[in-house]
Write a structure and sequence with these properties.
By secondary structure, this protein is an alpha/beta fold. It has a domain of 187 residues: 3-Layer(bba) Sandwich (FAD/NAD(P)-binding domain), CATH 3.50.50. It is built from nine helices and 19 strands. Strands 1, 2, 9, 10, 11, 12, 13 and 19 form an eight-stranded mixed sheet that branches. A seven-stranded mixed sheet has the order 7-6-15-16-17-14-18. Strands 3-4 form a two-stranded antiparallel ribbon. A hairpin with a 4-residue loop joins strand 10 and strand 11. The longest helix has 19 residues. The two termini are 15 Å apart.
């Protein structure tokens, strides 16, 4: 197997991996390679268009709707807000005008109450969060981003790390790097990649014990020609103890189509025994109960079950509650891996674990921790 060489190997093409790549380029450290197992970028950032089709988040577009993370809060996530501004992206406040609906008991009409107003304001991006992915990728050298490349094993050698990388065709490649940035969830890194020598047992346990945000969740999204609920004085917000959706919001895109989305309250293990079309029919019925008969006929719809995505969820995530967990250590304190391996996925962020802002925070800290060693010289040949 022919070996290839790079200073920094970034494993994962979601927000943290792309942000780390851009930070390296901005520092003039362009000898890196990014490996993404999927055939498209974004990781847990996923979007559909108004026809219900999944889209490539690496390609810009406006009339799109989020199946993964949706909001950020500029007032207390200034690092992400600065990046949005630097990339020239447009944002807008979440629509919250009018009444919200509370569905509390079977066979009873939903209660109308004034909608809650987020404080600080929650903000969305024009084109969805995929706009971040497209903008970051547009600033990178595409030759340094490899899609359909799954890192199977990391082996620590005397002065480098050898990566065993499987292409989509099944062919194996070997890459040598002096530094490795893990731009994926801790649990996924610890359970899906082999480490030689093994990670320190305590560190491996803490990574495996860290829940992956979004992993146990599912989102349903329905697209309409107009936001008809606004004409009824409704905000699009709803909460329900009846389900299947427990929380619903307006997902309309200014200048594009209208939409509603909801978080499915049915546990992941139960969803596995229900056909997706059946669950979607129940979601449509719930929207019709809440917002009227027009809600029963979306022009497009999609259910994204993240617990069924093997590049997001593990067996441990199937019974998880989906909370934002405390960040584990991002690198070993001692041993072979202590000077060459750093976790930069969102769950490794201390202030914002699991959030979009956490991906940027962890990426920035990871790049800072390796930049001095990167500048010391070329990788081993």
């Amino acid at each position: 197997m022919v070996s290839n060489f790079t200073h920094v190997a970034i494993i994962g093409g979601g927000l943290s991996g792309l942000a780390a790549a851009l930070l390296l380029e901005q520092q003039g450290l362009r000898d890196f390679m990014l490996f993404e197992a999927r055939d498209s970028l974004g990781g847990r950032i996923a979007s559909m268009d108004a026809s219900g089709a999944l889209v490539d988040c690496g390609v810009p577009g406006l009339d799109r709707f989020d199946l993964g993370p949706t909001w950020f809060w500029p007032e207390y996530q200034p690092q992400l807000d600065r990046l949005v501004q630097d990339l020239g992206l447009q944002c807008f406040e979440q629509f919250e005008h009018g009444d919200m609906l509370l569905e509390r008991a079977p066979d009873q009409a939903a209660l109308r109450r004034p909608a809650f107003t987020s404080a600080p304001a929650s903000v969305r991006l024009a084109g969805g969060t995929g706009a971040l992915v497209a903008a970051l990728y547009g600033r990178l050298d595409a030759r340094r981003v490899l899609l359909g490349h799954t890192v199977r094993r990391l082996r620590h050698a005397q002065d480098h790390v050898e990566l065993e990388v499987e292409q989509a065709s099944g062919q194996m490649l070997s890459w040598h790097a002096t530094q490795v940035l893990l731009a994926l969830p801790p649990r996924l890194a610890a359970s899906r990649m082999a480490f030689d020598p093994p990670l320190p047992p305590e560190l491996s346990r803490s990574w495996r014990a860290t829940p992956t945000w979004m992993a146990p969740h599912a989102k349903y999204l329905a697209v309409y020609d107009t936001p008809f609920w606004r004409e009824l004085g409704l905000s699009g917000d709803a909460q329900s103890t009846q389900g299947p959706m427990v929380e619903i919001h307006d997902a309309s895109m200014p200048g594009g189509h209208a939409a509603l989305f909801g978080f499915i309250g049915v546990p992941a293990q139960v969803r596995q025994g229900v056909a997706q079309q059946v669950l979607m029919a129940h979601c449509r019925a719930q929207l019709a109960r809440l917002f009227g008969k027009d809600a029963a006929r979306p022009r497009a719809e999609r259910l994204k079950d993240w617990s069924a995505d093997p590049l997001t969820a593990t067996d441990e995530d199937q019974a998880a509650g989906g909370q934002h967990a405390e960040a584990p250590p991002s690198r070993p304190a001692s041993g072979a891996w202590s000077d060459c391996l750093t976790g930069i996925g969102s769950e490794w962020s201390q202030p914002f674990p699991g959030y979009l802002a956490g991906a940027l925070d962890a990426a920035a800290r990871g790049v800072l921790s390796v930049s001095s060693s990167i500048a010391q010289g070329p990788p081993p040949r």
